[in-house]
Amino acid sequence: MGRLLLLLLLAVSASASEDAFIGVNIGTDLSDMPSPTQVVALLKAQNIKHIRLYDADKAMLLALAKTGISVTVSVPNDQLLGIGQSNATAANWVTRNILAHVPTTNITAIAVGSEVLTTLSNAAPILVSAMKFIQSALVASNLDSQIIVSTPHSSSIILDSFPPSQAFFNRSWDPIMVPLLKFLQSTGSYLMLNVYPYYDYMQSNGVIPLDYALFRPLPPNKEAVDSNTLLHYTNVFDAIVDAAYFAMSYLNFTNIPIVVTESGWPSKGDSSEPDATLDNANTYNSNLIRHVLNNTGTPKHPGIAVSTYIYELYNEDLRPGSVSEQNWGLFHASGVPVYILHLTGSGTVLANDTTNQTYCVARDSADPKMLQAALDWACGPGKVNCSPLLQGQPCYLPDSVIAHATYAFDSYYHQMAMADGTCNFNGVATITTTDPSHGSCRFPGSAGSNSTFVNGTALAPSSNSTVSGCRSQHFYNTFSRSMVFGVSLLSAVFL
């Protein structure tokens, strides 16, 4: 991608024999990019134990020294040709970027290039050579048991990805993929794969339901079923990962694990990307983190962790392209969260997780008729106690639909334990960290709340909007191709 990225990892214990981890990409296309010292300070504040650099930036590696943080460095694409054609060049690269920093800096892996097969076709023939030359230099330095070598791939190298059991790699890459997989197998490495359900959803023209892309719960009869294996899929992420597993098995490689090196959801987009929202980004990343750290695995390999890197740590205001390209971050450059991740019950809590201080409010730009319908639903089937909204009661004023809807939405959100997807109401609600309480009207979640909850099991209406395809830096195959979906949109009904 021609720029420095960091991938941060949270190490957590999992029930299987190996630990699961979550990573976060950190791009540097910011007009006010934090210094390496500031980045490391954020890593420490967030209790990040593992990171990945998309190059081997000297200043960053020095800042990481003596922190104990595990570091993955990368060979940038623009250096790939030289390293892939010269063992000596590869050895010099390792001497300069690895030996100069270990063991003070805890380097544990090297990613050789990024999406080389799909973005740098002229370098593809020497990709495996570059990996082997780097590996040889590590062996010569007795570091091969401490540092693994791999290369990230776009998921677009997988064709006919649904049903997963019929997936295969683009066969034009077989002369490269076969020796590449042999290298990963012989060195005990793993396949690095970039997985973006957001783009698969965008390109599906409504075939993929939003809930299915966001890990939202689906009833068993709404799950996607692989007709060959009868495996049930509850989310796009697992289906793509399993498609990669099946594609490898098609080439007779069945014991290479997968690490997802990029995955995420943008928090803002232009008019062509209406589902790039704070709520959807929060829902996707929170659910992804919980899914990975619960060590759920995939239907093909249940219980086997699929460690994943979230794209990305910072919003990058200098990124070219659509609005969404600048809004994948979890944090602003200042270190202030773009939104608050909901990680309660995931087994770990990020330092920026203040779930008990979040609120669900009506969007200022929401259609009044849709707000009224959502308000009626919350105070009816949603079983929210709306008595504080009656005339003469603490939350009657201001007497407006948006004010009353905000109270009802927040009441339902906290009534449902702030579960992901319960602050949506067909897109007219959003999550905020600002307490909407005013005067004697105290909102749920606020100290001194005056509300009374009524337990209920009704689910709040969720968004079922669809969008057309978009142009992005990432070009991924449409997941819905050859798809036999057992999934339908969960319709939202206001009574």
From TrEMBL:
The primary site where this protein sits is: membrane
According to its UniProt record, this protein's enzyme class is hydrolase
Question: What's the protein here called?
Answer: glucan endo-1,3-beta-D-glucosidase
Protein's cellular compartments: Cell membrane
GO terms (molecular function) for this protein are: glucan endo-1,3-beta-D-glucosidase activity
User: Which GO biological process annotations does it have?
Assistant: carbohydrate metabolic process; defense response
Domain (X8): residue spans on this chain: 358-443
User: PROSITE patterns this protein is in?
Assistant: GLYCOSYL_HYDROL_F17 (PS00587)
Naturally occurring in which organism (per UniProt): Rhododendron simsii (Sims's rhododendron)
* Topology in membrane: Lipid-anchor; GPI-anchor
Gene3D superfamilies referenced in this protein's UniProt entry, alphabetically: 1.20.58.1040, Glycosidases
Q: Which residues form the signal peptide?
A: 1-16
| Cited InterPro entries | GH, Glyco_hydro_17, Glyco_hydro_17_plant, X8
Q: Name one Pfam family in it.
A: Glyco_hydro_17
An example Gene Ontology cellular component term from the record?
plasmodesma
- Give the catalytic activity: Hydrolysis of (1->3)-beta-D-glucosidic linkages in (1->3)-beta-D-glucans
Q: Which UniProt keywords apply?
A: Cell membrane, Disulfide bond, Glycoprotein, Glycosidase, GPI-anchor, Hydrolase, Lipoprotein, Membrane, Plant defense, Signal
Concerning its family, UniProt says: Belongs to the glycosyl hydrolase 17 family.
The Enzyme Commission number assigned here is: 3.2.1.39
